[in-house]
Write a structure and sequence with these properties.
alpha+beta, D-Maltodextrin-Binding Protein, domain 2, Dipeptide-binding Protein, domain 3, 5-stranded mixed β-sheet, 16 helices, 22 strands, 20% strand, globular
């Protein structure tokens, strides 16, 4: 499995993909928006069309809190991070994304965010326009962005609180796309011809054709969504947080003590009136899980977001006052990959792959190994994006490959020329992860053996295991995550030309290629969903990889932490800390 540092950002389809050529999205007005802020207007000659889906809702106003219960101003929220920052420039970071995302979000805010506030379903929240006031496709090669007037940089030299303008936005997007392209930005940048400011608050992005994923990669992920001032950054990697961390977000960088903490303080000039509520944020550097647990239970930590290990959850739940949330992973989903790189690999036979899928008793794994605290999805958890399908959504001729059918698995293996014990393989796994990971991989090996596949676990140190994945040097099988950076890239990883390590198993399917190629240039939301369903059906039918139940991501908060929810999806910009307050 890859580190949970790799991430997914698919939910932006609700905002950007709903707006095809000539459509626009505008921010929902709130009492905290800058006075007199204009809405996005059509360019000359373009006909505005209302989005097929409503714009995302803003963060609930403070008045939504019951009278007499808050919110209260003041206090410093203390939360842990696993390691020291691996860098201070988001476009330079090669690891530690989850920890650095938390730093990055509170300082920069973002263009489009996934706010983390209590909703009907605590595991879901809708994307909303943040620093962007609106956007629209002028035509299928021109994306126009409107920056909110009145947003100012932190009052620090060399910018000294000046207003952020379209020039800053264009500079920032160009830097993200071309100077230091990160992750999927490289793929998007190949289709961008120019990014230019055309007036004080308007930027136009010119492309070589429809590129709907531009929104996910550049506008919503924290890699590219920050507005950075040109006078404070350079073409070289930024290493000094006092210079790198000058943004427009709710908090300002104050202090970093290696091995101890990172501290941010309230931005008094934040563009949202009366926010944030907190005086500051302290990220305590705590590599050891037991230390984090003890600090949470003793009250030294207020909030532990997303990285609470499943085995620790039961200990926390003994304290009913502590609020525990378990939600689908926001960074990737577990698959059992089969070697399609090696000539004469037995897994090039679709019958063998289907047998492997039907040998997995997913329900039993969820009930016993994960004790009901996991998730099962054919491709990616449906709550993460409206594209993704539940098991029941597949037609029965395909759905059967997601069901536990050991006798049919044995029959398929025999038809492929593998009587019991004849197919010998290894499953590469890493010794890095703690319970229930070892139980999961052992359970899968046992289930494969029960249908006559001689599967043994090949335990490897994490560095060796990861290097073999990156170089596609592994053979047999391996359990590894399919990251979620965005829904286009997620499915694009299965294209035959994606290459190693994007295409983890060496999938080469001309029919799948054609579907993916149609998807990446489709801006109509309904057509996107149709194509995504066809891609998933083909993926499951051919069993190019076998989904296995995955763990939930857990968060925990002491009872005095109010108005919080999980911090958005892993690569999404999120401003949840601006509305959190402490009742103590």
């Amino acid at each position: 499995m890859r580190q949970r540092a790799l991430v997914w950002t698919g939910i932006l389809v609700l905002l950007l993909a709903a707006c095809g050529p000539g459509q626009q999205a505008t921010a929902t007005p709130t009492s905290r928006a800058p006075a007199g802020a204009p809405t996005s207007t059509p360019a000359p000659g373009a006909t505005p069309i209302q989005p097929t889906r409503p714009a995302a809702s803003p963060t609930p106003a403070p008045s939504a809190t019951p009278a007499g219960t808050g919110p209260k101003y003041g206090g410093t929220l203390k939360t842990p991070m696993r390691t020291d920052p691996v860098g201070w420039d988001a476009m330079q970071i090669s690891g530690g994304y989850l920890d650095m995302r938390k730093q990055f979000n509170v300082v920069f805010g973002g263009l489009i965010t996934r706010p983390s506030v209590p909703e009907v379903n605590p595991c879901q929240s809708s994307p909303r326009l943040e620093s962007l006031e609106g956007f629209r496709w002028v035509d299928d090669r021109t994306l126009e962005l409107k920056l909110r007037p009145g947003i100012r940089f932190h009052n620090k030299p060399p910018v000294n609180g000046r207003e952020a303008t379209a020039e800053d936005l264009a500079y920032s997007l160009n830097r993200a796309a071309f100077v230091w392209p990160v992750s999927g930005a490289k793929n998007v940048a190949a289709h961008i011809k120019s990014i230019d400011a055309i007036d004080r608050y308007t930027v136009r992005v010119k492309t070589d054709g429809p590129v709907p994923q531009i929104g996910n990669t550049l506008l919503a992920t924290y890699f590219g969504s920050a507005i950075v001032p040109s006078e404070a950054v350079t073409k070289e990697p930024l290493t000094d947080p006092s210079k790198a961390y000058i943004g427009t977000g709710p908090f300002m960088f104050k202090e970093y003590r290696r091995g101890v903490k990172v501290v941010h303080v309230r931005n008094p000039d934040y563009w949202k009136k009366d926010l944030p509520y907190l005086d500051g944020l302290e990220f305590a550097i705590m590599p050891d899980v037991s230390t984090r647990l003890a600090a949470l239970l003793s009250g030294k930590l207020d909030l532990w977001v997303e990285e609470v290990p499943a085995p620790v959850v039961d200990s926390i739940k003994k304290y009913p006052a502590i609020n525990v949330q378990g939600c689908p992973s926001t960074s990737g989903y577990n698959f059992l990959w089969m070697d399609l790189f090696t000539p004469n690999s037995p897994f090039k036979d679709v019958r063998v792959r289907r047998a492997v899928s039907m040998a997995i008793d997913r329900d039993a794994i969820l009930k016993t190994i994960m004790q009901g605290q996991g998730m099962d999805a054919p491709f990616a958890p449906p709550p993460l994006n409206e594209w993704y399908l539940t098991r029941d959504a597949f037609p029965q001729p395909i759905r059967k490959y997601l069901e536990y059918r050991p006798e049919e698995a044995k029959k398929l293996l025999a038809e492929a020329g593998y009587p019991p014990g004849a197919l010998k393989t290894q499953i590469e796994v890493t010794a890095r992860y703690t319970s229930p990971y070892p139980e999961l991989v052992e359970g899968i090996a046992d289930q494969l053996n029960s249908v006559g596949i001689d599967a043994r676990l090949d335990w490897r140190e994490y560095v060796s295991w990861l290097e073999r994945e990156q170089d596609c040097q592994w053979q047999g099988m391996r359990i590894s995550r399919l990251p979620y950076e965005d829904q286009w890239r997620l499915m694009g990883r299965l294209h035959s030309k994606a290459g190693c390590p994007e295409n983890k198993g060496g999938v080469s399917d001309p029919e799948l290629d054609k579907l993916i190629e149609r998807l990446v240039v489709t801006v109509d939301l309904n057509k996107q969903k149709e194509l995504a369903a066809q891609i998933q059906a083909r993926f499951v039918d051919q069993a190019w990889a076998v989904s296995v139940p995955d763990f939930l991501d857990y968060s925990a908060a002491n009872p005095w932490v109010k108005n919080w929810n999980r911090g958005g999806y892993a690569a999404y910009s999120s401003t949840y800390t601006e509305v959190v307050w402490l009742d103590k």
